[in-house]
Amino acid sequence: MEQENFSRTGRDRSHLASQHIAFAAQAGSAGLVNALTVDVEDYFHVSAFEGVISPSDWDSMPHRVVGNTMRVLELFAEYRVRGTFFVLGWVAEKYPFLVRHIADAGHEIASHGCSHRRLHHLNRNEVREELYRSRVMLEDMTGTPVEGYRAPSWSICSSTLWVLDELIEQGYRYDSSIFPIYHDLYGIPDAPRLPYVIRREGGTLLEFPPTTYRFSIAGCRWNFPIAGGGYLRLLHPQMVQRGIRHVNLREGTPAVLYFHPWEIDPKQPRVGVRGKSRFRHYLNLDKMEGRLRYLLVRNRFSSMCDVLQQTDRDIVVDDPPSGLEATLHGTSDATLQQGEK
Fold it and tell me: Entry's PANTHER family (predicted)?
């Protein structure tokens, strides 16, 4: 296996970036462009810190989101890639110039809500307000439509499926919030792994889940997350690359890569959390930028909107209706009304 050594001189980086188009063209004969996404929030917004950092403390915390996001933009410019930035409303209100700078650099702006409160902590009216306010705010700042949404901490799960109807009603075109995995905080394990259309009475919504790799153990199928956040920092980049190639070549579907600006900031202030929360947040922060470079030079990436436009056919569910479709139908009354508080 390759030695993981990503330290590069400026000349090395320039050479790698100049080879990006040729190298990426060889990355998959399927010719697919993968989605490159960034959740624009600061280190203190993460749900794992809810117990030690209150939203009332955010203003007094050292803010690092501007510098880290600018570094991400420099990285994308170096490799000539366009991405989608799911911007938290709190960040947009504090730093509107940052939102405009992202848009002026040619990237797609999408919504990450306003408060970074997980959706099961909000009632339907509060969710409706966040979806509306964040979209209008971002559209006013950039002058372009906001078509996509990603829930804080992947919090569209079995108990919050009613949010899908709100997204449709608000005019969102796509969502990227349903993680088809088992996790202690989020996920719908039986949800489809590949892009699919959710059809509701009020309209349709394209769901574009984060990328997972499917494997079987003792006859049971498991989805393993491979292409984002803490998983990208945990796994060796060769494993991630193999997973992306598998999804592209074997399953004929674009991958979705995601990360946060704070993940390329090993010098960020340390927060007093322990156990798995500390492990998940601080693992391999010093290696993250190098791992992104490894993937950027080997794959073709663009924004969610660009990726969704690369096919002229309807995207269909890759799993039988026993997955999310059955979940939606089975909870259409009880769960959808659960948000009415």
Answer: POLYSACCHARIDE DEACETYLASE FAMILY PROTEIN (AFU_ORTHOLOGUE AFUA_6G05030)
Residue closest to 304 by CA, chosen among 115, 120, 33: 33
Tell me the CA distances in angstroms from 126 to 48, 119, 172, 178, one per residue in order. 22, 9, 17, 20
- 234: tokens are 């945990």
Angstrom distance (rounded) from CA 133 to CA 139: 10
Which domains are seen in the chain, by residue range?
Answer: 29-338 (3.20.20.370)
Q: Each residue of 264-283: pLDDT tens digit?
A: 999 999 998 888 888 888 89
81-102 pLDDT, tens digit each: 999 999 999 999 999 999 999 9
Q: Is the pTM of this model over 0.70?
A: yes
Task: Please give the C-alpha separations between residue 323 and each of 189, 196, 200, 213, in angstroms, as whole numbers.
Answer: 8, 12, 16, 16
| Residue spans of alpha helices (H) in the chain | 10-18, 20-25, 65-78, 89-94, 96-104, 124-142, 162-170, 229-234, 237-245, 275-282, 288-296, 304-308, 324-330, 334-338
